[in-house]
Each structure stands twice: as C-alpha cells, then as structure tokens.
UniProtKB/TrEMBL annotation, chain A:
Species of origin: Mucilaginibacter pocheonensis
Protein name according to UniProt: Ferritin-like domain-containing protein
Pfam family name, one: Ferritin_2
Superkingdom field: Bacteria
InterPro entries per UniProt: Ferritin-like (IPR012347), Ferritin-like_SF (IPR009078)
Span of the signal peptide: none
UniProtKB/TrEMBL annotation, chain B:
Lineage, top ranks: Bacteria, Pseudomonadati, Bacteroidota, Sphingobacteriia, Sphingobacteriales
Native source organism of the sequence: Mucilaginibacter pocheonensis
UniProt-listed SUPFAM superfamilies: Ferritin-like (SSF47240)
Pfam families cross-referenced by the UniProt entry: Ferritin_2
Protein name: Ferritin-like domain-containing protein
InterPro entries: Ferritin-like_SF
Top-rank lineage group of the source organism: Bacteria
Amino acid sequence: MNLFNIIEEIENVDPEVYGRLSPRRDVIKNITSFGSKVAVAALPFAVGTMFKKAYAADAAASTVIGVLNYALTLEYLESTFYNAGKDKGIALIPASAATNYFNQVTTDENNHVTFLTSVIKSLGGTPVSKPEIDLTAGNGSGDGPFKDVLTNYSTFLAVAQAFEDTGVRAYKGQAGFLLKNQVVLTAALSIHAVEARHASAIRQIRAQTPWITSTTSLGNDTGIALLNGNYDGEQNVTQGGVNVTSLKSATSSTTSVAVATAAFDEALSSEQVLALLSGSFLVKH
Amino acid sequence: MKTEQQESVLDANMARRSFLRYAGVASVGLLTTAACHKDHKITPSSTGVDLGAKNDFAILNYAYALEQLEAAFYLQVAATPFSGITSAETKLLTDIRDHEVLHREFFKAALGAKAIPDLTPDFSSIDFSNRAKVLAAAKAFEDTGVTAYDGVGYLIESADYLLIAGKIVSVEARHAALISNMITPGSFAGPDVIDTTNSLNKSATIGEVLKIANGFLKTKVSAVNYGYIAS
C-alpha cells in the first residue's frame, strides 16, 4: 500500500488531514521520520489505526465502510460495463462518441473504483471484491432483457443512462449516513456530482433533456418501460414539506410538474437500489 | 419582458424596508451596522448582507444567495438572447432558468423569515449579446454552484437539509455538463472541474465561492462566522 497516495487522495477532500492525524503535521508528511519509528510490516495496521482515531468522532466507522463498500459495488458495475463497451471498439461505439464521451466516462468510473478501494483500506476496512455481473440483466444467463447491450449501440446508451441516473440517486441516498463527515461525505458528494455530469452527457447523446423530466404519474422519462423502477420517485414534487408546483415561476404564479421534477433529483435507499440490481445485473445465486 | 434586474430595482424599496426585520436574524456587514448606529438611517441594500451565525440557516442562505444569482443570470439570458441563438439552445437555457428560479423560490419559502434579503446582481461585466461570453459565465456559475454545494455538505447538521442540498447539486451538475458541452463537445467532466487523479469533482469553501459570487453582486455577501468578509 502506498501511504502517501492515500493521504494525498484524502487531502484532496480534507485539506486538514495532516492536522487530524497529528498536530505535528511534518511528522506525517515526512515518511522517513515516521517510517523509522514503525516497522514496515506493521505499517498498514498502524495506518488503519491512525485513520480510525482521526475520524472516529465523525460517524461509526462500520457505517462509513458499509457505505463505501456499497458505493464500490456500484462503481464496479459501471466500470465493468464501460470497459466491456470500450473493448468492443467501433463495432459498438462510434469513434466520435468514444473520443468525446465514453473514454472520459470509462476513465472516471475506473478511477472511482481505485479511489474507493484506497479509502476503504485506509480506514481499516476490507474492500468488497468485484461482484459477479451480467450486463444483459439476466442474472448470469447472459440472456437478459438487455441481451444486445454490447452489440447494439442504442441499448448500450440506454443502459448507460440508467446506470448513471441510478448512480446519482444511490449516492444521494447515502449522504445522511455520512452526516458531518468532512472527508467521506465530501468525497461521496464529489463522486455524486461526477455521476450527474455523466448522466447529463449520456442523456444529451440520447437526445433527452439532460435532467430527468417526469410527469405526475411517471418518474421514468427514458421511454423504456423496463426502467420504470430505476426512475420511480422522480415524479415527487414535495420538497421539505413544500409542494414546489405552488411556487411562482419566471412566467407564472405556479410551476409546472416538468420543471418541478427536473429541478430536484430524488434519492434511492441502498435497499431500493439493490432490489433493482440484484438478480439481474448483479448475479444472485 | 420584465428582466430580473428590473424586478430587483422595483423590489429595492421593499428590500430596504425589510432590512431591519432581517437584521435580527442575519447579522449585517460591519460597515452597514456602523452606519446605522451613527445616523440611524437605513443604508441602501448594496452595502451587503452576512450569512449570520454558524448553523444550517447560514448554509441554506448561502445556497439561497447562489440560487438568487443564478436565477437572475438566466432570467437575463432569456430576456436578451445572444445573437444567433438556436431554438434548441433557447429551450435548454429556458429550462435551466426555470430550475434556478424554482430553487430560488424554494429556499425563499423554506427559509421564511430567516431568509436573507433579495440580492441585487451586477452583470455589467457580461456581454449578453455574445454567445461565448454568456456560456462562459453560465459555466462559471454552474461549476461554482457544484463546488459550493459539495464543499459545504459536511457543515450541514440536519440530514433532511443535506438531502435537499443533494437533490439540487446533482441538477446543477447536469446543467454544468450541458453548458460545458455547448462550449466544447466532450468537456462535460474536464480537468478544470474534475481532479484527474481520482475523478472527483472539485469542491470549494464558502469564502472561495463568495469571492467569485460577489464579483456579480451589488449586494455583497459575507460569511463572517465562516472566515470570509466581502472586500
């Protein structure tokens, strides 16, 4: 393990990480000083303890690691999907779309897997291994409802959009478990924002609004009924007890359902997300 | 069509009258307070507001301030479209305007008497007739909005308020990605906004964000209790 990489990564989201670890920040920054006092073999253990002490006050460590492992599972699904698409090359993805969109998205999802794995380890947790995945949503049969996902670009795009929009909802649903945790919450929100950027971009390729525009009765705006569950709840118009359609808009004394639903993305709990994925994209034996 | 700037002018008297009513909640900039003590006159709202005591209302007012600014910007964009705007661009930018206006109205309703006053924007640095200038400003507003929400998430004490911030920030990120792609296709998650080593969106402190926002505001916003005073 590379202690510096981990601390540097955490420093990106928590500039005060050195101060948290030790008031004598130079001791931490200067690995030769630190290393001379701790046997190299014991370093991973020492580091885990160090981080646990530093962040123990923020939230129960097991809760935080649980959230991170859940996020890691979702990132494994996304990265597996985009890497498989990339491997197909121009047989699946037009060259311009690869250059403009999918190379970036693939890199980001692979980076998220690496980042989450590092953070989980640095907090003394054990990262989950890559789940068994069926990109056709066939629970391992390879013959699910999206069976042409790697041969038909329009199916590939539809699944990409569903993964990104659902990923945004999934991260949002975890925020409350990371309340006031500067390092992990900020990191989770930062990944959440990147997933939303991806979702926006892929929706643009699909000639959809970059935001989810629901109707009163249907959250799903993809035109693919199979995905109704992924978007259910997006039709909500009540925020913090306020029915936002009753608020004034630029041109009227009220706001349309289309605007009210598009202006607020909705969360999903981990139970809801796993119910959508388990037994389809995530193989359940 | 009435623009936001015009609306703000019309509302200016109201804002000034509301000043004392709000003063008890949002502590007011030092200069303004001094002026009040000196001559017992209410100074124009352009001298500034402060987010007040360190709590969730300060963070919600911070979001409200940014949403006021974004809404005012897109109202102006819609009222005075840049030359050569396409119908597709008009539709998208009008949608964004509507989202930002709703965010503004939502915070105003949710904060009630705790809301900071209406802010007066200053868009004199933006050439609204020029597509590139308008989109560059839009990108700055959206990217700053995302870094702002991400940067204060951990300061929010209530899980309910954090969830609402989460519901809004992903929509801002959707806007940001669209605007980036309108400027340069494929730049929706570029190295200017994403840390390329780990693909995390950048985040920013209250002071960093308000410094940028105040460049577009006549009413300067301070956050004394978060270590930032508008200069």
